[in-house]
């Protein structure tokens, strides 16, 4: 009984170690450029803590302030400075 119990404990420890290793590799869900790294190598961080910031490639979006009386002059595709 003791040997079976030891084996079961070892299997459980192995499963837990495999689960922990799966969290060791960080993957982004989109292609992009790493802009910020918020952790050091070997640092243990809490679940949900942002570790890396990635600027995603693709279509860009900008927000500008335009006086209300000038809004009618803006049309899609118009060049602005």
Structure description:
With 81 residues, the chain is an alpha+beta fold. It has one domain. Helices cover 26% and strands 14% of the residues. The chain has 1 helix and 2 strands; from the N terminus they run H-E-E. The protein has one helix at 2-22, and strands at 32-37, 52-56. The chain has a two-stranded antiparallel ribbon. The longest helix is centred in the N-terminal third of the chain and has 21 residues, at 2-22. It is rod-shaped. The model has no long low-confidence stretch (mean pLDDT 87).
In brief:
This protein has 81 residues and is α+β, with helices and mostly antiparallel strands.
Q: Give the structural class.
A: alpha+beta
Q: State the helical fraction.
A: 25-40%
Q: What's the number of domains?
A: 1
Strand content: 5-15%
For the largest beta sheet, what order do the strands appear in spatially? 1-2
Which blocks of ≥5 consecutive residues have pLDDT under 50?
none
Mean pLDDT: 87
The dominant shape is rod-shaped
Cα end-to-end separation? 80 Å
- Give the tally of β-strands: 2
What's the helix-strand series? HEE
Major sheet characteristics = 2 strands, antiparallel
Helical stretch tally: 1
User: What is the rounded Rg?
Assistant: 25 Å
